[in-house]
Amino acid sequence: MTSTNPAPEQGEITPGNPADSPEEIAVRTGASAELMANSVGEYVRIWLKQIRSGESGALPVIIGLIVIVIFFQIKSSHFLSAGNLVNLMTQAAFIITLGMAEVFVLLLGEIDLAAGFTAACGAVIALYLVAKNYPWWVAILACLAATGAYGAVQGFIITRLRLPSFVVTLAGYLFLSGALLFLIDSTGPIGNGGVIRLNSNVLNDIEAGALSATASWIVMIALVLLAGAMMYLRDHRRRSNGLVAPPLSVTLLKVAAIAVAGIVVVLVGNSNRGTLFLAVRGLPWVVLVVLGILVVYTTLLGRTRFGRYIYAIGGNAEAARRAGVNTNRIKVAAFALCGLTAGITGIIYSSYLGSISSGVNGGQNVLNAVAAAVIGGTSLFGGRGKMLDALLGGLVVGVIANGLQLLGLSAPSQLMWTALVLVAAVTVDALTRRGRSTV
Amino acid sequence: MDGPLLQLRGIGKNFGPVQALSGIDLDIPAGQVTALVGDNGAGKSTLIKTISGIWEPSHGEIIWQGQRAHFKTPRDATDAGIATVYQDLALCDNLDIVQNMLLGHEVRHGLLLDEVTMETTAKQTLSDLRVTTVRNIRQTVGSLSGGQRQAVAVAKAVMLDAKLVIMDEPTAALGVSQTALVLDLIGRLARRGIGVMLISHNLVDVFQVADRLAVLYLGGLVSTGPVSEYDTASAVDLMTTGASRRTGQADNGARIPDSGREG
Is the CATH number of domain A57-209+284-437 2.30.30? Predict the structure, then answer.
């Protein structure tokens, strides 16, 4: 029947039905709103419709975060004080980076239960080396090399022997929790009493140090300008090649949103949180470290072939294999990156504590990290998620811990509240996804 | 090029003592649609898997563009220009159309992906194939209809410069209008000079789009020829019994009407 139909004019991909509004089409097809809209108003309308139909993106977790923040601020006026917010940033940092580590493997539909102890063991290596008077950067490199290699070994076992990552990394969890005790024990007097103190000003300053107020502003302005320039150049290149690009107004709005977030963070960081006699100002270094990792990893996942293959394997491993992707190699690399990022986490964590001890709860840390990624919107079943999810979800987990501490509630209620939020997040995700499948 | 695109000479395939295929001699010409039909278990899937490099034949030889070919892996066959669009389509639902079409063949600008070039290429291929029902090629493949997904899978094969596209039951799961879309696409592939091998149960589709017919019965090729030499009754006879009194008689009066063949 169609073979007799005159084929439509060659060229622009056209809608099936000219009567369809861009909103209807965007909702029906799951296309990103920014490539469908011609103006800000249209963009917002499409976006709202997509949210209603289940393509919610980062919105639920941001709304959830705001609700939790308001709740804690009502309960305790200290919550939104500069001092506490800076505290929050330093507390949440290691959950966020460990969550980013998990995103690499969660995207494949895998999991790394050992990452919490990978981090702890990496920290032991780094802290031992600085205690032995090696330079801080040697300590960091050795830590990352060891944790990255450990991740690769896990990945190798999982892919070559075709074992489930859950079991392999569960074994890794047990092994490394033993290795942690063994390593600290083997350091002799350095690890006296099961605690290795952090003997490096540089590493200590990751969490304890801060940029000067001026430097904070300069860095944040540079970051915002850089992000804006990159978005503009990308749109410009698309437009000049005849492809659809988001309207300039939408891009400007996004840059403005990033700028506002940056300004708020710097204002908080720069307000005096010290005592009457000793002023403490400036953005903690760890904020920059986390943002830097976020930018690098987001680029890796979104803009490189490696990242594309991770999503492809998570979506349909057989399709990736048939397309010529060496799925085993990509998986091993993802587990290695997960281990390496756990190593970074170990350094941030020990910088936060000022030491590393045999009592690190690597199990709870890793589960918090997985929870952070999932709360942020990363799927446990692979193929869906972003590095930003770990940041947003990590902030939620961090805010709950911080807020309940502030209210004087202890560990038991912190854990139970985090659990409830996790269930709520997964429920929201499941419901929106059900909405999507019926569209 | 002179001569057929692909020649199968005495192809046989054993799985232990089980002989799944034996003595298949078949020519697949370029620019035509060859339909491979047969009942369940006749060996259609075994044959296309042999051609597409999933496994090697036990006997016989594959001659590809005049040269003896040994496809040890699917990748070998793909690199030679044989693209197989399987029933499960091998698409990643979480990736968009462009990402799926260029999966495994991404264009890079330094270390980073060159999205603009990839999107332009994909868009061009789709519009060459007149795949115009897709509104936005940045939508995820999971949001597409069955026919659109099939079109994306075919466009992916075409973009990799496939000279022979093997399609396994492309219309099996599709409704009427989606089927029409895919059949239309198959015809267009052949008119671009690409050889198409179509595996289908649906004789209506086969007679609508195929130029040649090859009938498998119990692992052997029982009949092959231009589609005009068959009608539904003789094809069914051949598929179910391996013989038909009416085979090869182009002038018998029981031919199906020419509906849909005029395109």
Answer: no
